[in-house]
Amino acid sequence: MQEEKYLYIRKPIPRRDIDKLTGEAQFIADIEIPGALWMKLVGSPYPHARILEIDTSEAEKVPGVEAVLTGKDFPFKIGHHIRDRDVLARDRALYVGHPVAAVIAETLEAAEKAAELVRVKYEPLPYVLDPLEAMKPDAPLLHPNLGEYEHLPFLYPVPGTNIAHKFKLRKGSIKDGEREADVVVEEEYRLPMLHHSYLEPWGAAARVRSDGTIEIWTSSQGPFAVRTQLAHSLHIPESRIVVHYLYVGGGFGAKSDLFLEYLPVLASMKLNGRPVKLILNREESFYYGFHRAEYIFRMKTGARKSDGKIVFHKGEYIYGTGHAADLGSLLGNTIGWLATGPYDIPNVWIDSYTVYTNKPTTTAFRNYTHTELWFAFEQQMDILAERLGMDPVEFRLRNLIKPGASTLPTGQQISEDWGDPEGVLKRAAELIEWGKEPEQPREPWKRRAKAIVMAPKGPSMPPNITTSAIVKMNEDGSVDLLTGVAEIGQGTLNSLAMMVAEELQIPLEKVRVYGIDRDTSNTPYDWETCASRATFAIGQAVLKAVDDLKQQIKQLASQILRVDPSSIEIRDGKAVVKGEPWKALKLEEVAMGYTFPDGHAIHGQLIGRGSWVPRRTTGLDEEGRGHPLEFVTYSAQAVEIEVDILSGRIDILKAVAVADTPFINKILALGQAYGGALMGINVALREEIKFDENGKILNPGFTDYKIARAGDIPKSIIVEFLSTKLLHDAPYGAKGIGEVFLGGWPAAIANALYRAIGVRIKRAPLSPERVVEEIKKQKPDLLENIVKKLGGE
Amino acid sequence: MSGTDGEIQVKLKVNGRMREVRVKPNERLIDTLREKLGLKSVKMGCLTGECGTCTVLYNGQPVKSCLVLTAEADGKEVITVEGLAGSDEMRRITEVFARNNAFQCGFCTPAFVLLAYWLMKVKPKATDEEILEASNSILCRCTGYTQILQALKEAISRV
Ligand code: FES
Ligand code: FES
């Protein structure tokens, strides 16, 4: 790559949102809305039950209570992709925690007290918690009227079953593949439901203004997504809904779409527009919030001995979506078309199912099904390599997609400017010193090993999703940037400001970016902050807007300086005639138009605008054919672990992540890498929402649902960004990096564990209890030998 | 001091000023600070003493304010980040946190800022292990801690 000369881009520019340090930054729980009422929900204690009667009379008597709402108040279903959710459970409650009533009161205390006095009579019904059980023909049905639900055109629900959506992908012929295969590996992998563990519990407030406008404050990654989905769900025009931007205390996908905003909205409508707020606490976040789904992957993969090529892959991928499938349907799709990872496989057959169970509902989780699929697929790869007697890195190199030549199983061509998958794998191998055996610890009960996996990210977004930006000049020559991007911590606003300053060659301080002082009515549209797309998509809109502004500056300056617009360049805060630097206008002289000495003025304020829409993508047809991807960020991740055979504890001694993309801001990019890696490692080792046999959550809080602490970070972590190719339309070649680093850690750790002690764990998380249990099952002699050794010493 | 309605009068020094509040015997300090005294930098992540986003300096020590009853806080001194405004320490903390990207969503950040302040004031010679140990009391789901730890180290190193 040639030497780049940038003023700001690629530099470690300090963050500017320092109001987060002082407590000025306001989150949903911090804002005061005068006259706001509190909402408290009442959840079902049963996983599946008919609601016979709800007696609200005692609750209504509590002083301060304004209303007690139940399902009867809202006799319709809502949902954006598929209309399968009750506002409050109507005839039946579908999981433990399913909200059946909502108390609205002057104070939280009164609401809490009244919620305890709501009396509900239930008739328990048969229920199903396991997705595989739920797919059986005689399973209790969660949605007997599934066939009548309204849904978007690309979804295929199977009426009379618990299958909310079925996705199919077919390429080549499995029969041909099976004939060619010398080695066939058939396995089943499982991952549990997870809590995203954003530190800020979700909350929202709403009121209806006297002109009929619905005003919403919400902890959301996508104020526009909330507006769109709410409008669609409630049959209200978008123009009547205004969603305010707020600081968001972590989202990781959970806050990316409509959450429970409809509850305060509908309550406010019932209460003459009075503001109503619903702020969940941590336990409620577990019961009423949205989680990562559970997954089951059944895979059968065959390879040839002669050249180590994979010749077929057949998979049944099951996405356990919980009691509602609204967003799960799309995720079920994505695991389908991601099917074979970054490998070129001629014959592919995939069925993916989105399946209802009597559990809380689920939604996107950072890295949108990739981490989960890699957990299965990359273990499958190591098992195949071992059966073929090949080195796992070598085996992967032989099967990787070839940019420019291969296609995805959907038929989309792998673009050359996406980067170099082989390059990232080789670099990760170098960094982990692949081939050099780790030094074994002195304690006989501890073993070390390394593993390496591919973990690319191909963000999926609807093919028509748009975003836009406005840059306007101020009197003093400074620039305001207005976009619809939600700042959820990733620092996009900082990166966008750097782009504007870079293009106009002005000091960074002269760019002001709208942060939370926005709402959906005064901001250009943006879909939402997800799919690692903020910098990529919005960055392009911003660059177009700046370009538009520059054209206007040149046009105006050319009239004043009486030269051709093409001979003007913009630098150092001036419009300068090339080669004649004494002929120049300061940006502040043209910002509001130009005033000639006689007072005559031209043009007025300069405002640039730009829009973006994906160029390369299409929808997928019924056989899974189409172009789902704008780009792929290739990544490989490697670990060296140490396992304690007696306790089952796994320590990460070294973690290596290589991603093939340049970045905009170095320290922000590293922040995404460190944060993503620790989350991915913790997901691998600890995280699981545990349910008892009646569908009740056993660990609804951080006491028993453990997220990583500072002491849990790997002993050494190496992050490297390659820039083998600059993605054609990406701003400064930078692809998304918000998710790719969550990546392949669960797969890498599982593979390393196998390489260390020969125990293969196909079920996440690899918690100490599970590791010990699997050692006892798969390698009982390991323990016995250690005990003997210890006894003998 | 007990009132007739079961509420208790509590006097405490908050960010340098004496404050008097009337509270129920079971009111948590976090609620008093947020709701009665308007100190919204004190965040509520769990209320079970796990996340540490409610950390304040309580008689000079980092303490989780969801685990303290306001009634016990009579005569005590409390500092939140609002109380650091304008101080030299806060200027330095702002600089090292921004330079190191030591925050993302910002929800855990006031707690870590207080930790930095405490290190500077009370443990300016803390070793890396002591910094790590102290950091273990506050959760952050965004950053992976690496850049926070770096910022904390730089906050107390006078280079
Ligand atoms: S709110 Fe106090 S520790 Fe979490
Ligand atoms: S910055 Fe988000 S929790 Fe720490």
UniProtKB/TrEMBL annotation, chain B:
A family per Pfam = Fer2_2
In this chain the 2Fe-2S ferredoxin-type domain maps to 8-84
Query: What are the recorded GO MF terms, alphabetically?
Result: 2 iron, 2 sulfur cluster binding; metal ion binding; oxidoreductase activity
Q: Which UniProt keywords apply?
A: 2Fe-2S, Iron, Iron-sulfur, Metal-binding, Oxidoreductase
Q: Which PANTHER family match?
A: OXIDOREDUCTASE WITH IRON-SULFUR SUBUNIT, XANTHINE DEHYDROGENASE IRON-SULFUR-BINDING SUBUNIT XDHC-RELATED
Q: Protein name, please?
A: (2Fe-2S)-binding protein
Q: Give the organism, scientific name.
A: Fervidicoccus fontis
